[in-house]
Each structure stands twice: as C-alpha cells, then as structure tokens.
Amino acid sequence: MKACGVSGAEKEVALLELPEPSSPGPGQILVAVEAAGVGPWDELLNGAGWDVGLRPPAALGVEGAGEVLAVGAGVTGLAVGDRVLAHEAPLPGGSGFWAERVLITADHTAACPPGLDAVQAAALPVNGLTALQALEKLDLSRGQRLLITNGGGATGALAIQLAAAEGFEVTATASSAAAERLLGLGATEVVDYHDPNWSAKVRGGFHAALTIATSTAGDALPLVRDGGRLCSLTSDAPPEERGITSWDLYVEPDAAQLAHLAERVAAGTLKLAPEPLPLSEGPAAFARVVAGQAGGRKIVLTRT
Description:
Elements: E1 2-6, E2 14-17, E3 28-37, H1 42-45, E4 58-59, E5 63-71, E6 83-87, E7 101-105, E8 109-111, H2 118-123, H3 125-138, E9 145-149, H4 154-165, E10 169-174, H5 179-185, E11 189-192, E12 206-211, H6 217-220, E13 224-232, E14 245-248, H7 255-267, E15 274-278, H8 282-290, E16 298-302
Parallel strand pairs: 9-10, 9-12, 10-11, 12-13, 13-14, 15-16
Antiparallel strand pairs: 1-2, 1-4, 3-5, 3-7, 3-16, 5-6, 6-8
Helix pairs in contact: 3-4
C-alpha cells in the first residue's frame, strides 16, 4: 500500500510502499484512511522523543479519519462501513495514519458525525484533544482570565474557542495578521508575539496560562496570579512559585472527548482551518509543519 513515513535507520521522511496491515486482533479495527493530520509532534515519532511503537519501515501519523474495513474480536459499537476518526498512540500495528490503511484500537475511535467530511475530521483529534484536556485540567470558572500563547496555531485556535464557550476571558499571543481571526473566535485581546516586550503589554493577574509556543512559559509565569495554574504543551513548564501549579501536558487518546468535539465541529460551533494536500506531497507537508511554515493552518493528507 502507498504510505509516507520512514524506511528504517534513515530519518528522512519519504513516500513508501508498505505491506498491508495484519488483520485486526481483539479490540482492534482496520481503517481505510481517507485523511490524516500532520503536526509538529510527528517529528518526535521517528526516534526523537515520542515512542508510539513505530516499527520501520512505517507510516508516520497518529490521527486521521476513514472507513472501518474489518473489526477484531470483542469490538462492539463499530461495524464495517462505519466512518470514524481517532488519535492513536501507541500504534498497535507499528505504523501510522499516513497510509492507505491503518490498524488502531477500537476504544480510541469515535464515530464520525453525519455531515463531517474526512478532512475536517482528520484535522481535529490531536489538536482538539490537547486543547480540551489542557482546559479541563486548568479547571477555570466562568469570568476568569486565561492567557494562551500561540493562539494562532491549530491547537491555540481551538483552545480559544473552547475557552470562550465556557465564558473565560482569553488573551492570546499571535501574529498581528491573525488578530482579527482570533477575536472572531472569541479572544478578548490579541497581543503580537513579534514584539519582544509583549509580556509587558498585557495586564497580568491571569488565573491561568496555557503555553503552546516554545519558550514562552517563562514569560507567562510572572503574568499568572499567586495560586494560579500554568500548563505547558512544549515540555518546558517552569518550576512552581508563588503557589502556582505548573506542569507539562501530553495528549492522550479519548474516544468520548473526541466524539464530543466532532459533534461540535459538525454543528458549526467549533471551527477548523484545514489545508488538504494529497498523500504524495507528504514529505513536503511534513517539512513545512516542522519548520513552522503552515501559517496557522492544519495540514491534512488525503488519499487522492
């Protein structure tokens, strides 16, 4: 089958021909991939910090959407022909979603709501689950203030929408070009991160901070009030001080959360901005995302 990934000791991402996945075992399903998300985390899959059980030669990718081709023993609630989406890690078949077919765990899989196309569905899992899980752990109340760095990225834009829907007051850092879009998504204030003194331009006393841009946690911490909370998505949470709880968060598969998010996207209350590209452009798409050149769009690889 056609795929995009890594062949072995060589770390270069390339187009590949891979063997078909094995038949699904107990609790597993085989999915014909229609679309698969690309994220900066995919650079970590190739022996660089995130062990998802990849067994090269293998496709990269830990999220996607498609149609169920086969179900293993003990699988309930899913049948051949169902449209699904998922974030999967570890990968039970040793290979990921940037391929024509992938083997995944049924319990990590959500049904794709009617009307939600594959590109939108594939753009959601990792960014959506990350944003939702971070906000749930930050545990804010209506009217409280939240600082989000890199609000213009795929995760940040979803976090802004989810936070605004809960009645949180959101200040986000982003490029000036993204400001109008983020205000439209629910941010109260957008600060240009290109300004080296951006942290001095905002009113402190935030109840919490969600840092999505690398190396911003240290700048954000002084802006959080005593006893507040800071969640870093870039593995650089600073030491706790002034009673502030500070931690790094790593996304986990969660079918129930994903189903909830997918319903909101299908209903139009949660907006995504995917950029679909054919699987054949996978290596170039990966290079763009890793270099931070996606322009706030979520790149999604499609099978056509």
